[in-house]
Design brief:
With 360 residues, the protein is of the alpha/beta class. The chain folds into three domains: 55 residues, DNA polymerase, domain 1 (Orthogonal Bundle), CATH 1.10.150; 190 residues, 3-Layer(aba) Sandwich (Rossmann fold), CATH 3.40.50.450; 54 residues, Orthogonal Bundle (Arc Repressor Mutant, subunit A). The protein is built from 18 helices and twelve strands.
């Protein structure tokens, strides 16, 4: 196998993600060398079960997956390819392989994720369509998950405006989900791209969708949550956006509306309140991005309250755990969690694995 086939094969083996791949590449150097290694060394590096999966990998699975992609007109790229999306390269847990129907363009670096509830109200649906259309008209690519509800209306809004949109699936291309959006997927592929990190025959299992959500935020400069209940999956996307250093925007909703409880909570925690398209364009410093897509937008001056200032002084360049911050500030755990979220929303600190935090 060459390096391309090796990476696609690794993606077909359960429990191998980019972290384990980095570990393997750090030792072997090239993806194809991984499959030439023995059980003992692989077992020491990634454990016996995963090592056995590599040694006993059935290359027929690779052939069937690539053949299915060819027949469906789906391009398969790996993180070693030049066409791999620039925004995704920056995130932790970047996907090893991407299956793409359509085309990801260089300008798609200027993208906005738009997410919300599958059971959205008319307010949430119409807002998703309106804001997506206006953002697409301004030159932003709209990224969403092609789910029922807000996602569908976000894609439709971008398409109606003649803009580009990217749909990220939680299944393989042999199982377009939801099935009623098959026609929408075809339209998106003609005006952007439908993307999945899952092999062609992967079914839309519940555990796939949080992984899908991290790609929505990872492909985007920021994420707009139009409407979300308190336990909505859209809030998972907002969490990933924070971890990835992306902006989080939210539309305010009625205080007595269960459908807006999640978005209103995001606003209380420090998400950027949006009432018009200019709120998003201004925050992203859109004109600056147009002049130079790699240019870092200027940070606005941010005023901290006394508690936030005290916590911020306790976080430096060395990772600090929640327990250490509680000890230094004497704040209760619930208050620390709220303050940390606020500092994350303002991009003043960032999270590390193990619930540790450093200054951005």
């Amino acid at each position: 196998m060459d390096n391309f086939e090796s990476l696609v094969s690794l993606n077909l083996i359960p429990q191998i993600g980019s972290a384990r791949l980095d570990e393997l590449l750090g030792y072997f150097g090239q993806p194809q060398d991984i499959f030439n290694a023995g059980r003992d060394i692989l077992g020491k590096l990634v454990g016996g079960r995963i090592g056995e999966g590599i040694v006993s990998f059935d290359t027929g699975k690779l052939d069937r997956d690539l053949d299915a992609a060819r027949k469906a007109g789906v391009e398969v790229i790996t993180l070693l390819d030049r066409g791999y999306p620039r925004n995704l390269r920056q995130i932790p847990g970047r996907p090893i392989v991407l299956y793409i129907s359509g085309r990801i363009a260089d300008d798609d670096v200027l993208s906005l994720g738009v997410v919300g509830s599958r059971r959205a109200t008319l307010y949430g649906l119409s807002s998703a369509e309106k804001f997506s259309g206006e953002m697409a008209s301004s030159g932003l690519t709209i990224v969403s998950g092609m789910a029922r509800g807000v996602d569908t209306y976000a894609h439709r809004g971008a398409l109606k405006a003649g803009g580009r949109t990217i749909a990220v699936m939680g299944s393989g291309f042999n199982h377009i989900y939801p099935p009623e959006n098959r026609g929408l997927a075809e339209k998106i592929a003609k005006n952007g791209a439908v993307v999945s990190e899952f092999p062609m025959d992967t079914r839309p299992l519940a555990q796939n969708f949080p992984r899908r959500n991290r790609l929505i935020s990872g492909l985007s400069l920021g994420v707009l949550v139009t409407e979300a209940a308190r336990n909505s999956g859209a809030l998972i996307t907002a969490d990933f956006a924070l971890e990835q250093g992306r902006d989080v925007f939210a539309l305010p909703g009625r205080i007595d509306a269960c459908a807006s409880a999640g978005t209103n909570q995001l606003l209380k925690q420090g998400a950027k309140l949006v009432t018009c398209s200019e709120d998003i364009l201004g925050e992203l410093n859109f004109c600056g991005y147009l002049k130079n897509a790699a240019h870092e937008p200027e940070k606005k001056e941010r005023v901290l309250c006394a508690e936030e200032e005290k916590l911020y002084r306790c976080i430096g360049c060395d990772p600090a755990s929640v327990d250490e911050l509680i000890e230094k500030t004497s704040f209760p755990n619930s208050r620390i969690s709220s303050l940390i979220l606020g500092l994350q929303f303002r991009k003043l600190i960032k999270a590390l694995p193990g619930k540790q935090f450093i200054r951005s």
